[in-house]
Design brief:
This protein is α/β, with parallel strands linked by helices. The protein is built from 13 helices and 15 strands. It starts with a strand and ends with a strand. The mean pLDDT is 96.
Length: 353
Amino acid sequence: MKAIVTHGPFDYRLETVPDPVPGPEEVVIRVKASGLCASDMKCYHGGPSFWQGNPPYVKPPVIPGHEFIGEVVALGEGAEEKYGLRIGDKAVAEQILPCWECRFCKTGKYWMCERNYVFGFQGGIDDGGMAEYSKFPKGSIIHKVPKELPDEYGALIEPLACAIHAVERGEIQLGDTAVISGMGPIGLMMLQIAKLKNPGLLIALDTRDFRLDIAKKLGADITINVAEEDAVKKVKDITDGYGCDVYIEASGYPKSVPQGLDMIRKLGTFVEFGVFGEPAVADWTIIGDRKELNIHGSHLGPYRYPLAIDYLTKGLIRGDLIVSHKIPLENFKDAIKIAEDPNSNSIKILIIP
Protein backbone atom coordinates (compact mmCIF):
# COMPACT_ATOMS: atom_id res chain seq x y z
CA MET A 1 0.00 0.00 0.00
CA LYS A 2 0.98 3.65 -0.33
CA ALA A 3 1.74 5.51 2.86
CA ILE A 4 3.45 8.64 4.11
CA VAL A 5 6.40 7.63 6.26
CA THR A 6 8.15 9.81 8.82
CA HIS A 7 11.92 9.35 8.90
CA GLY A 8 12.81 12.53 10.79
CA PRO A 9 12.07 16.26 10.95
CA PHE A 10 11.31 17.58 7.45
CA ASP A 11 11.86 14.05 6.12
CA TYR A 12 8.43 12.65 5.25
CA ARG A 13 8.22 10.38 2.20
CA LEU A 14 5.54 8.68 0.12
CA GLU A 15 6.46 5.01 0.11
CA THR A 16 5.08 1.59 -0.70
CA VAL A 17 4.89 -0.50 2.47
CA PRO A 18 3.30 -3.88 3.31
CA ASP A 19 -0.45 -3.95 3.88
CA PRO A 20 -1.29 -4.38 7.58
CA VAL A 21 -2.53 -7.81 8.68
CA PRO A 22 -4.72 -8.16 11.79
CA GLY A 23 -3.71 -10.36 14.68
CA PRO A 24 -6.07 -11.46 17.48
CA GLU A 25 -8.49 -8.66 18.51
CA GLU A 26 -7.08 -6.34 15.83
CA VAL A 27 -8.92 -4.45 13.09
CA VAL A 28 -7.74 -3.28 9.68
CA ILE A 29 -9.49 -0.41 7.95
CA ARG A 30 -9.33 1.15 4.52
CA VAL A 31 -8.63 4.76 5.45
CA LYS A 32 -11.20 7.19 4.09
CA ALA A 33 -9.86 10.46 5.48
CA SER A 34 -7.05 11.56 7.79
CA GLY A 35 -6.70 15.00 9.33
CA LEU A 36 -3.46 16.98 9.43
CA CYS A 37 -3.13 18.17 13.03
CA ALA A 38 -1.14 21.09 14.43
CA SER A 39 0.88 18.55 16.44
CA ASP A 40 1.69 16.74 13.17
CA MET A 41 3.13 19.99 11.87
CA LYS A 42 5.13 20.62 15.04
CA CYS A 43 6.53 17.11 14.71
CA TYR A 44 7.35 17.74 11.04
CA HIS A 45 9.22 20.91 12.02
CA GLY A 46 11.29 19.11 14.66
CA GLY A 47 9.47 20.16 17.83
CA PRO A 48 11.54 19.35 20.93
CA SER A 49 8.72 17.46 22.65
CA PHE A 50 8.73 15.01 19.72
CA TRP A 51 12.42 14.66 18.88
CA GLN A 52 14.39 15.43 22.03
CA GLY A 53 14.80 13.14 25.02
CA ASN A 54 16.41 9.77 25.51
CA PRO A 55 14.85 8.06 23.72
CA PRO A 56 12.85 10.58 21.65
CA TYR A 57 9.06 10.25 21.71
CA VAL A 58 8.89 9.64 17.94
CA LYS A 59 10.21 6.27 16.81
CA PRO A 60 10.74 6.36 13.04
CA PRO A 61 10.12 5.05 10.51
CA VAL A 62 6.44 5.57 11.31
CA ILE A 63 3.25 6.38 9.41
CA PRO A 64 1.85 9.63 10.85
CA GLY A 65 -1.76 10.60 11.52
CA HIS A 66 -4.07 10.21 14.52
CA GLU A 67 -7.27 11.87 13.22
CA PHE A 68 -8.62 9.27 10.83
CA ILE A 69 -11.62 7.16 9.97
CA GLY A 70 -12.09 4.16 7.72
CA GLU A 71 -14.04 1.14 6.55
CA VAL A 72 -13.39 -2.22 8.20
CA VAL A 73 -11.81 -4.62 5.70
CA ALA A 74 -10.31 -7.29 7.98
CA LEU A 75 -10.97 -8.55 11.51
CA GLY A 76 -8.59 -10.58 13.62
CA GLU A 77 -9.77 -13.43 15.80
CA GLY A 78 -12.11 -12.13 18.50
CA ALA A 79 -12.31 -8.59 17.12
CA GLU A 80 -15.88 -8.90 15.85
CA GLU A 81 -17.10 -10.07 19.25
CA LYS A 82 -15.10 -7.52 21.23
CA TYR A 83 -15.98 -4.44 19.19
CA GLY A 84 -19.28 -5.37 17.58
CA LEU A 85 -17.84 -4.72 14.13
CA ARG A 86 -18.37 -6.40 10.78
CA ILE A 87 -16.68 -6.08 7.41
CA GLY A 88 -17.91 -2.88 5.75
CA ASP A 89 -18.64 -1.02 8.99
CA LYS A 90 -17.24 2.46 9.49
CA ALA A 91 -14.96 2.74 12.52
CA VAL A 92 -12.59 5.04 14.39
CA ALA A 93 -10.08 4.35 17.16
CA GLU A 94 -9.26 6.74 19.96
CA GLN A 95 -5.92 8.41 19.38
CA ILE A 96 -4.18 6.78 22.33
CA LEU A 97 -3.15 3.12 22.50
CA PRO A 98 -3.22 2.42 26.25
CA CYS A 99 -0.92 -0.13 27.87
CA TRP A 100 -3.71 -1.22 30.26
CA GLU A 101 -1.01 -2.08 32.83
CA CYS A 102 0.07 1.23 34.42
CA ARG A 103 -1.57 2.82 37.47
CA PHE A 104 -3.51 5.26 35.26
CA CYS A 105 -4.92 2.63 32.92
CA LYS A 106 -5.86 0.35 35.81
CA THR A 107 -7.88 3.12 37.46
CA GLY A 108 -9.78 4.15 34.34
CA LYS A 109 -7.57 7.13 33.49
CA TYR A 110 -6.33 5.54 30.29
CA TRP A 111 -5.82 8.86 28.49
CA MET A 112 -2.94 9.56 30.87
CA CYS A 113 -1.30 6.17 30.19
CA GLU A 114 2.30 6.34 31.37
CA ARG A 115 3.82 5.25 28.07
CA ASN A 116 1.52 7.62 26.15
CA TYR A 117 1.50 5.90 22.77
CA VAL A 118 -0.53 7.98 20.32
CA PHE A 119 -1.25 6.81 16.79
CA GLY A 120 1.28 7.99 14.25
CA PHE A 121 4.39 8.35 16.39
CA GLN A 122 5.75 4.88 17.30
CA GLY A 123 6.77 2.95 14.20
CA GLY A 124 5.61 -0.65 14.04
CA ILE A 125 3.44 -0.17 17.12
CA ASP A 126 0.79 2.44 16.35
CA ASP A 127 1.32 3.50 12.75
CA GLY A 128 -1.27 6.11 11.85
CA GLY A 129 -3.82 6.97 9.22
CA MET A 130 -1.89 8.73 6.47
CA ALA A 131 -1.96 5.58 4.37
CA GLU A 132 -4.32 3.54 2.25
CA TYR A 133 -4.86 1.08 5.11
CA SER A 134 -4.29 1.17 8.86
CA LYS A 135 -4.44 -1.32 11.71
CA PHE A 136 -6.01 -0.77 15.11
CA PRO A 137 -3.72 -2.87 17.33
CA LYS A 138 -4.87 -5.02 20.21
CA GLY A 139 -5.77 -2.78 23.12
CA SER A 140 -7.16 0.00 20.93
CA ILE A 141 -10.38 1.73 21.95
CA ILE A 142 -12.55 1.37 18.84
CA HIS A 143 -15.92 2.94 18.10
CA LYS A 144 -18.41 2.06 15.39
CA VAL A 145 -19.49 5.11 13.38
CA PRO A 146 -22.87 5.51 11.64
CA LYS A 147 -22.51 5.02 7.91
CA GLU A 148 -24.51 8.18 7.24
CA LEU A 149 -21.77 10.37 8.74
CA PRO A 150 -19.65 11.68 5.82
CA ASP A 151 -16.02 10.61 5.95
CA GLU A 152 -14.77 14.21 5.99
CA TYR A 153 -16.70 14.79 9.21
CA GLY A 154 -15.68 11.40 10.57
CA ALA A 155 -12.10 12.65 10.54
CA LEU A 156 -13.26 15.38 12.95
CA ILE A 157 -14.31 12.92 15.65
CA GLU A 158 -10.88 12.91 17.31
CA PRO A 159 -10.43 16.71 17.51
CA LEU A 160 -14.06 17.16 18.58
CA ALA A 161 -13.60 14.69 21.44
CA CYS A 162 -10.57 16.74 22.52
CA ALA A 163 -12.61 19.93 22.29
CA ILE A 164 -15.41 18.50 24.44
CA HIS A 165 -12.97 17.40 27.13
CA ALA A 166 -11.22 20.79 27.21
CA VAL A 167 -14.48 22.73 27.51
CA GLU A 168 -15.64 20.44 30.29
CA ARG A 169 -12.35 21.10 32.09
CA GLY A 170 -13.24 24.80 31.93
CA GLU A 171 -16.34 24.23 34.07
CA ILE A 172 -18.23 27.04 32.33
CA GLN A 173 -21.25 28.19 34.32
CA LEU A 174 -24.43 29.90 33.12
CA GLY A 175 -23.71 33.58 32.57
CA ASP A 176 -19.91 33.23 32.52
CA THR A 177 -17.69 35.22 30.22
CA ALA A 178 -15.65 32.56 28.45
CA VAL A 179 -12.67 33.26 26.19
CA ILE A 180 -11.15 30.78 23.75
CA SER A 181 -7.73 31.66 22.39
CA GLY A 182 -6.94 30.17 18.99
CA MET A 183 -9.55 29.60 16.28
CA GLY A 184 -7.93 26.65 14.59
CA PRO A 185 -10.01 23.50 13.97
CA ILE A 186 -10.16 22.46 17.64
CA GLY A 187 -10.67 26.03 18.84
CA LEU A 188 -13.64 26.40 16.50
CA MET A 189 -15.07 23.15 17.82
CA MET A 190 -14.45 24.25 21.41
CA LEU A 191 -16.38 27.40 20.56
CA GLN A 192 -19.39 25.37 19.43
CA ILE A 193 -19.26 23.13 22.50
CA ALA A 194 -18.89 26.13 24.81
CA LYS A 195 -21.96 27.69 23.19
CA LEU A 196 -23.95 24.64 24.31
CA LYS A 197 -22.98 25.57 27.89
CA ASN A 198 -24.91 28.85 27.56
CA PRO A 199 -22.24 31.28 28.76
CA GLY A 200 -23.25 34.91 29.17
CA LEU A 201 -20.58 35.99 26.70
CA LEU A 202 -18.40 33.90 24.39
CA ILE A 203 -15.27 35.58 23.06
CA ALA A 204 -12.97 34.24 20.32
CA LEU A 205 -9.33 35.30 19.92
CA ASP A 206 -7.04 34.82 16.95
CA THR A 207 -4.60 36.69 14.71
CA ARG A 208 -6.39 35.92 11.42
CA ASP A 209 -9.56 37.73 10.46
CA PHE A 210 -10.89 34.94 8.26
CA ARG A 211 -10.84 32.55 11.23
CA LEU A 212 -12.58 35.12 13.40
CA ASP A 213 -15.24 35.50 10.71
CA ILE A 214 -15.88 31.76 10.92
CA ALA A 215 -15.96 31.96 14.73
CA LYS A 216 -18.67 34.60 14.46
CA LYS A 217 -20.74 32.31 12.23
CA LEU A 218 -20.30 29.47 14.72
CA GLY A 219 -21.54 31.39 17.74
CA ALA A 220 -18.91 33.81 19.06
CA ASP A 221 -20.52 36.91 20.59
CA ILE A 222 -17.32 38.93 20.24
CA THR A 223 -14.17 38.34 18.19
CA ILE A 224 -10.82 40.00 18.81
CA ASN A 225 -7.79 40.04 16.53
CA VAL A 226 -5.00 40.00 19.11
CA ALA A 227 -2.49 41.23 16.52
CA GLU A 228 -4.49 44.43 16.04
CA GLU A 229 -6.19 45.10 19.37
CA ASP A 230 -5.30 45.02 23.06
CA ALA A 231 -7.32 41.93 23.88
CA VAL A 232 -6.71 42.10 27.64
CA LYS A 233 -7.94 45.70 27.83
CA LYS A 234 -10.97 44.98 25.68
CA VAL A 235 -12.07 41.99 27.74
CA LYS A 236 -11.59 43.87 30.99
CA ASP A 237 -13.54 46.84 29.65
CA ILE A 238 -16.39 44.50 28.72
CA THR A 239 -16.40 42.89 32.19
CA ASP A 240 -16.24 46.06 34.33
CA GLY A 241 -12.53 45.57 34.91
CA TYR A 242 -12.77 42.06 36.36
CA GLY A 243 -11.73 39.93 33.40
CA CYS A 244 -13.13 36.70 31.98
CA ASP A 245 -14.33 33.82 34.13
CA VAL A 246 -12.83 31.08 31.94
CA TYR A 247 -9.89 31.22 29.54
CA ILE A 248 -9.17 28.23 27.29
CA GLU A 249 -5.77 28.30 25.59
CA ALA A 250 -5.98 26.44 22.28
CA SER A 251 -3.56 28.42 20.11
CA GLY A 252 -0.30 26.68 20.96
CA TYR A 253 1.49 30.07 20.92
CA PRO A 254 3.53 30.88 24.06
CA LYS A 255 2.31 34.51 24.22
CA SER A 256 -1.24 33.27 24.68
CA VAL A 257 -0.40 32.06 28.20
CA PRO A 258 0.58 35.38 29.86
CA GLN A 259 -2.21 37.02 27.87
CA GLY A 260 -4.70 34.66 29.49
CA LEU A 261 -3.28 35.10 32.97
CA ASP A 262 -3.64 38.87 32.63
CA MET A 263 -7.12 38.62 31.12
CA ILE A 264 -8.72 36.23 33.61
CA ARG A 265 -10.43 37.39 36.80
CA LYS A 266 -9.46 36.41 40.32
CA LEU A 267 -10.54 32.85 41.15
CA GLY A 268 -11.05 32.18 37.44
CA THR A 269 -10.32 28.96 35.55
CA PHE A 270 -7.52 28.66 33.00
CA VAL A 271 -7.46 25.59 30.71
CA GLU A 272 -4.26 24.77 28.86
CA PHE A 273 -4.81 22.62 25.78
CA GLY A 274 -2.39 23.94 23.16
CA VAL A 275 0.82 22.10 22.32
CA PHE A 276 3.78 24.48 22.17
CA GLY A 277 6.77 24.35 19.87
CA GLU A 278 8.83 26.19 22.50
CA PRO A 279 8.52 26.89 26.25
CA ALA A 280 5.79 29.29 27.42
CA VAL A 281 6.97 31.67 30.14
CA ALA A 282 4.59 33.16 32.71
CA ASP A 283 4.62 34.94 36.07
CA TRP A 284 3.44 32.26 38.47
CA THR A 285 2.78 34.85 41.17
CA ILE A 286 -0.35 35.76 39.21
CA ILE A 287 -1.59 32.18 39.51
CA GLY A 288 -1.13 31.96 43.25
CA ASP A 289 -0.72 35.08 45.32
CA ARG A 290 -2.49 37.58 43.07
CA LYS A 291 -5.45 35.68 41.66
CA GLU A 292 -5.65 32.17 43.18
CA LEU A 293 -6.52 30.69 39.81
CA ASN A 294 -7.69 27.21 38.94
CA ILE A 295 -5.25 25.83 36.35
CA HIS A 296 -6.53 22.81 34.46
CA GLY A 297 -4.60 20.90 31.84
CA SER A 298 -6.47 19.13 29.05
CA HIS A 299 -5.15 16.06 27.25
CA LEU A 300 -6.92 14.12 24.49
CA GLY A 301 -10.65 13.31 24.54
CA PRO A 302 -11.28 10.57 27.11
CA TYR A 303 -14.74 9.00 27.18
CA ARG A 304 -15.97 11.64 24.73
CA TYR A 305 -15.80 9.82 21.38
CA PRO A 306 -19.41 8.56 21.58
CA LEU A 307 -20.61 12.10 22.28
CA ALA A 308 -18.47 13.52 19.45
CA ILE A 309 -19.87 10.91 17.04
CA ASP A 310 -23.41 11.71 18.16
CA TYR A 311 -22.98 15.49 17.84
CA LEU A 312 -21.49 15.25 14.35
CA THR A 313 -24.09 12.75 13.16
CA LYS A 314 -26.96 14.90 14.42
CA GLY A 315 -25.43 18.08 13.02
CA LEU A 316 -25.16 19.75 16.43
CA ILE A 317 -21.56 20.59 15.58
CA ARG A 318 -20.87 22.00 12.14
CA GLY A 319 -17.97 20.59 10.19
CA ASP A 320 -18.65 22.32 6.90
CA LEU A 321 -16.95 25.53 7.98
CA ILE A 322 -13.98 23.65 9.45
CA VAL A 323 -12.88 21.27 6.67
CA SER A 324 -11.18 23.65 4.24
CA HIS A 325 -8.96 21.41 2.07
CA LYS A 326 -8.98 17.78 0.89
CA ILE A 327 -5.64 16.68 -0.55
CA PRO A 328 -4.86 13.31 -2.19
CA LEU A 329 -2.36 11.15 -0.28
CA GLU A 330 0.23 11.33 -3.05
CA ASN A 331 0.15 15.13 -2.86
CA PHE A 332 0.82 15.27 0.88
CA LYS A 333 3.63 17.78 0.39
CA ASP A 334 1.01 20.20 -0.92
CA ALA A 335 -0.93 19.72 2.31
CA ILE A 336 2.16 20.64 4.32
CA LYS A 337 2.76 23.74 2.19
CA ILE A 338 -0.83 24.85 2.65
CA ALA A 339 -0.59 24.36 6.41
CA GLU A 340 2.64 26.38 6.50
CA ASP A 341 1.22 29.26 4.45
CA PRO A 342 -0.39 31.92 6.69
CA ASN A 343 -2.26 33.27 3.66
CA SER A 344 -3.82 29.96 2.62
CA ASN A 345 -7.01 30.45 4.66
CA SER A 346 -6.78 26.84 5.76
CA ILE A 347 -8.60 25.43 8.77
CA LYS A 348 -8.66 21.63 8.72
CA ILE A 349 -6.70 19.94 5.96
CA LEU A 350 -7.67 16.35 5.20
CA ILE A 351 -5.48 13.83 3.44
CA ILE A 352 -7.52 11.44 1.29
CA PRO A 353 -5.95 8.08 0.30
